[in-house]
Amino acid sequence: MTRITIKVEVRPSEDENKVIQAVKNFFDFESLKEEKEGYIKILIMESHTLSSLEKFYHKLREERILDAARKYLFKGLVGNVISFMLNKQAAAVGRISFVDSEKESPLGPIKVEIEHKDPEAVINWLTPKTSKGVPLWENPIPSDN
Question: What is the mean pLDDT of residues 49-69?
């Protein structure tokens, strides 16, 4: 089973539509719900198919950051879940910028969790090994089942 969950805060000073667009720059999602945490709204987006990561897949290649991204994805691998965070402001302008802590994204990061039966296959699909920044091979998208 595949489940992709994206959580992002919308601060009172932010335009919710721009925050959603920042996420849509890299990810598609099937459902969107809201939660409140004090004065902060939290958007939770979900998908159940790896194809919702295709924009992210292509952007990693366009920005030529496969090696760095691969390290972040493996660093966030626990059991069957890959977790990582992206800088929201960078995402708003269509750039991928991984962050190690929430403090690195002043308005809160975009938190991504990818749950899959074979998370290493997902990482190898998204970020194959490279030589001088060029993928040594491309892996097929893993099955969602």
Answer: 96
- For the chain, the farthest-separated pair of C-alpha atoms sits apart, in whole angstroms, at 48
C-beta atoms surrounding 26 within 10 Å:
23
Give the span between the Cα atoms of 8 and 34, in whole angstroms: 10
Rounded (5°) CA angle 97-36-17: 50
Confidence of residue 38 (pLDDT cuts 50, 70, 90): confident
**Nearest Cα to Cα of residue 6 among 20, 18, 16, 133:** 20
Written as one string, the DSSP assignment of 108-129 is -PEEEEEE-S-HHHHHHHHS--
In angstroms, what CA-CA distances link 14 with 31, 33, 107, 140?
A: 21, 17, 9, 38
**Residue 107: count of CB within 10 angstroms of its CB:** 16
CB 25 within 8 A of CB 55: yes
